[in-house]
Amino acid sequence: MKKIGILFGQENTFPQAFIDRINEKGEKDITAEFVRIDKILQGEPLDYAVIVDRISQDVPFYRAALKNAAISGTAVINNPFWWSADEKFFNNALAVKLGIPVPKTVLLPSREHPTGTTDQSFRNLAYPLDWDAIFDYVGFPAYMKPFDGGGWRDVYKISDKEDLWTKFEGTGELVMLLQEEIVFDDYFRCYCIGGKHVRIMQYEPRNPHHLRYEHGKAPADKKLLKTIEEYVLKLNQYLGYDFNTVEFAVRDGIPYAIDFCNPAPDADINSVGQENFDWVVETAATYAIERAKQQKDGIDNLTWGEYLKASVGKTPLVSAPVKAAKASAPAAKANVSVGAIDHTITEEAKPEPVAEEKPKKAKAAPKAKAAKTSVPAAAPAPVAEENVATPETAKKGKKATKKKE
Hints:
Elements: E1 2-7, H1 13-25, E2 30-34, E3 50-53, H2 60-70, E4 75-77, H3 80-85, H4 88-98, E5 105-108, H5 131-138, E6 142-146, E7 156-158, H6 161-168, E8 176-180, E9 186-193, E10 197-202, H7 222-239, E11 243-251, E12 254-259, H8 269-272, H9 274-294, H10 306-312, E13 334-338, E14 341-345
Parallel strand pairs: 1-2, 1-3, 3-4, 10-13
Antiparallel strand pairs: 5-8, 6-7, 6-8, 9-10, 9-11, 11-12, 13-14
Helix pairs in contact: 1-9
């Protein structure tokens, strides 16, 4: 008998529904249950063919236990080795190499010295940073957020350089991203399961959390949805995520990938709604059963993405200019669902070229008041902003409707 387990924390509706659906299917020699851990011995397997991980990002003990289970043959969804190493800035860099549009983004060193370090630890870091070049590249308004964060924490909207200095003071030891604001015309949140099943959901991130999927917008253009679906597949296949969400802000017809490092995405019925909930439960259950049937004891049963395979094979990534971004057709047949409509993508026709984007060049900032990498005398409380890389209000004369998980 092969067991499928789910490891979870504070969420309630998805784990029970996931377990119930697998058991309802009545697959021969396959059963599902909540993971139960009473001891972890080095090199000893847990009694599960598959474990769906929904909590180890917040519990280091679980992350270590899952790695131990993985080397003993458990198929862990998502790969705990890759997830431990992954972060949002790398993901953006990978998207650039793949020709998928993303907001202009730079990496900032922590405002305070990390614990156990001194100014001598930063001998290779220029002081001051080339802030003029950074501001000219990103522009204002912008958003600042942790390079490996999640859960809407420590996100700031930045109006100008003076605002940056003020809010940067409150970030402590966090390594931050400074990211271009995308004034969007439409917004999408997309589930991707197994690197092949996609659910595209129109989304309004400025609504209260439980109303974000009740957007009231007209149905999206089919060509745009096709492009988004192909971007979702490509990102997840290269990253190697079995269960993830990708979010897109659409500006001037171009879908910009805003956030695509959500390997334990929200799947609660009270926020995603009944139809989306039913889809994610059914698809996750079917995929977990598929992985259980493929699983073999004592070997690596993890998913490793195309990026790592290309690295091992010393194969260069194919880079495409964003201004003429064309998403290639999926390598295999992929199931995609838009709203409550499910269908199978069988055509391999390429989408129409994405229109060239001509961003306005931001004014260079004067060299003044460069932020130091040191502990401030008195750091003000963070001014949290909920949405990343999207405005709170649209530019005059433009219809705007808007993001991070």
